[in-house]
Amino acid sequence: MSKIALITGATSGIGEACAHTFAQQGYQLILLARREDRLTKIAHHLADKYEIEIKQVLADVRDKKSLSAALETLPADWKKVDVLVNNAGLSQGLDPIDQGNTDDWDTMIDTNVKGLLYITKIVSNWMIPNQSGHIINIGSIAGKEVYPNGNVYCATKHAVDALSKAMRIDLLPYGIKVTEINPGMVETEFSVVRFKGDEDRAKKVYENLEPLIADDIADAIWYVVSRPKHVNINDMLIMPTVQATATIINRKNG
Ligand code: NDP
Ligand code: 8X3
C-alpha cells in the first residue's frame, strides 16, 4: 500500500492545497472536514485525477466522541498513517478583549487547540506501533507574536506552538517527527470566516499587497515531509515578502 496522509480541514485553503500536493505524490489520503458536498467533490476529483484511494471523514474536530467514532471506523490498513496534517482551524472576530464574543472564543479554543489534541492522541497511537510517522501542526505568525485584537486567536496559536514542542519531546521515543509550520498572511477563506461571511471586509485584508497562497504552504509542507528519515524540520515561519511582522506590512499606495 502507498503511504497515507490524514489531512484535517481539507475542504478549503491550505488543507485542500495539501490534499492536491500529497495526491500528486501518490499518497493515499484521509480527508477530514465538516462540509460534505465539498469534501466529496474534492475527494472524487483527486481520486480520478491521480488514481489514488481516498477515505472521507465527515467530522467536526470539536466533537470528541463523534470524531473518535468516525476515525475508528477506518479499516485497519488505513490506520497506518504516515503523515498527519493538523490544519483544521479558524479565527472568529477581531475585537479587543473587553468586547470579545465568548462564543467565538469557545469556537477558536475548541477547534484550534482541543480539536488538534483529540486528533493527535488518536493518530499518534496509530503511529507508535510503526515506530515512525510525521505530525505537521499548522501554527501561525499569530503563535509567535500577538497583535491588537488578535488576543484569543493568538493564544490558540501560541498553544499550538507549545504543543508542537511538547509533542516533539513526548513522541521522540517512537521515532515520530513533529513539525510546526507557521504562515503569515495566506489568502484563503480564513478572513471570510473570521469576519463571518463579510467578503468585502475580508478582501480588504489582502488589498494592495501580494499575500501567500495556499500552494506556497503545501509546497513547504511537502519539502518538510520529503526530507530524509534522519532529518526533521522543527519549525518554519513563512511570510509574504511584503510582511515583516504580523502588523508591519508594505502595502502598495501606503
Ligand atoms: P480556510 O478557512 O480556507 O480553511 C479552514 C479549513 O478548516 C476548512 O477546510 C474547514 O472545513 C476546516 N475546519 C474549520 N473548523 C473545523 C472543524 N470544527 N472541524 C473540522 N474541520 C474544520 O482557512 P486556511 O486554509 O487559511 O486555514 C487553515 C489553517 O491555517 C488554520 O489552522 C489557520 O489558523 C491557519 N493559518 C491560516 C493563515 C492565513 O492567513 N490564512 C495564516 C496562518 C495560519 P469545514 O468548514 O468544511 O469543516
Ligand atoms: C492567520 C494569520 O496574521 O491573521 O493565522 O493572524 S493572522
Automatic annotation (TrEMBL):
Protein name listed in UniProt: NADP-dependent 3-hydroxy acid dehydrogenase YdfG
Keyword Lipid metabolism set for record: no
Keywords: Oxidoreductase
Transport keyword on record: no
Family: Belongs to the short-chain dehydrogenases/reductases (SDR) family.
One GO MF term: oxidoreductase activity, acting on the CH-OH group of donors, NAD or NADP as acceptor
PROSITE patterns: ADH_SHORT (PS00061)
Any one Pfam family match given in the protein's UniProt record, by short name: adh_short
